[in-house]
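Fresh eyes needed here. Have a critical look at this protein's tokenised backbone.
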Amino acid sequence: MSKGGRIYVDGHSRRFQVHLSDQAVGSMVAVCAVARGRETGGILIGRFTEDGNAAFVLEASAKPPDSGAGWAWFKRGASGLRDMLVQRWTHGLHYLGEWHFHPGGSSEPSSPDKSSMAAIATNERYQCPEPILVILGGRPPRKYDFSVTVFPAMGRPVPLRLQRWPPQN
């Protein structure tokens, strides 16, 4: 299923894999490049394998219009997301997690990032007990990197590492 993009894996147990499609990567980079040094973000949409150990992130949304952002903070709004997710669900796609931008900074999750994702993992409304957090850090479109972390409802966050880039056929 992954002919392009980036593949991130759990370096220890290899229980988790996250495949970021070229489209999702391109969307995040483009949104961040025009954010003018403010944090931004959105949700991740895609599908899981049957065993639930691999996620394919096919889409990264732009920030909803009711989001708030500053130089060092981001609060994702919800306007329009329900309708978007209902429409994607008809095509077998689901909410997989969140993404956001640390302008000029590290792509590593902050303490508030970790707290927010732990709350999502245990909130039944999200129906996502192992949400993914993707953070883009740096100065896109020229210099940037990603971190990818899985937040199991029962357990500690699992940072993933880039397996290979560019992908091999």
